[in-house]
Amino acid sequence: MILITGATGGLGHKTIDFLLQTTPASEIAAIVRDAGRAKDLVERGVDVRQADYFDYSSLVQAMQGIDKVLLVSAVAFTDRALQHKNVIDAAKEAGVKHLFYTSIQRSTDFVMKEVTESDLATETYLKASGLVYTILKNGYYFEGLSYMIGSEVPDSEIVFPAGEGRIAFVKRTELAAATATLLTSAGHDNQEYTLTGSEAYSFHDIARELSSLAGHPITYKNIEIPQYVSRQVAAGVPEFVADFIAQWGASAKHGMLAETHGTVEQLLGRKPTSLREYLKETYFTDK
Ligand SMILES: NC(=O)c1ccc[n+]([C@@H]2O[C@H](COP(=O)([O-])OP(=O)(O)OC[C@H]3O[C@@H](n4cnc5c(N)ncnc54)[C@H](OP(=O)(O)O)[C@@H]3O)[C@@H](O)[C@H]2O)c1
Predict the structure, then answer these.
(1) Which domain covers residue 32, as residue numbers?
(2) 182 lies in a domain?
(3) What residues have CB less than 8 Å from 201, skipping those under 6 apart?
(4) How far, in Å, is the centroid of ligand 1 from the Cα of 16?
């Protein structure tokens, strides 16, 4: 039986949607914090179990009878390393054989305090745990682009501290599809995969595509982090949020998210969504 954590979140829920296309619901379980938000999963026959990464005994209980776990990493600004350690320890205690962990792409050793430190700690802990592991180093979601450039087409300019850095954006849905395929196929014992889009794009590329789709000029201007944060705070964004988004810019600038890998394309059996396709469907299609 395969168990997906974070099943009321974006990646976990979509991964279950894809699993259900190939796997009987009776072989799928889910960990959620709030069962009231997982009624659709229950209706589709998924075995929904309540647990919290901070509550060790709830995790041991929820992982009874499970062979494989997808540990969807915990959110930033929480003690991620402790939560992940709890899940790994509980999996071991419950007799789980194989644990998949969703980490972040690290094409360089740039340190993004809120994310890469706990990911690295988790990967090291998992590898030493004795469980069979598979580490999924997920690329930056296309869906996160709006945090960087806004959710409306910019009037004339994108101002962001990413320098000339590139990002191999990948849609979360496509990551979920790729993850479901990995979970249901053999040959991934003690493997690490970097799951990215097939192309990496700079913010100049983003501005160029937006210009072409909008029919008016949009340019990209790099800005230093302190100036970016001040501007965002002046616009009403909480400082820690502005700083976190700026750190993603810095990670792009330092190449952390730039490398492209063909794994998602192979697993999907087609090219993943391109920048132009994503911008078109997100910024230029009536919802
Ligand atoms: N690659 C990227 O660009 C990128 C971007 C953002 C985040 N991430 C990472 O990837 C993960 C998955 O992304 P996502 O988009 O699916 O995030 P999401 O929608 O925020 O989902 C996170 C899931 O984790 C669950 N969770 C959080 N803390 C928990 C706890 N203490 N106990 C049990 N469950 C807990 C949440 O439960 P609730 O539903 O109850 O809140 C939620 O279901 C994120 O958590 C983050 O680590 C990656």
Answers:
(1) 2-137
(2) no
(3) 166, 167, 168, 169, 275
(4) 14
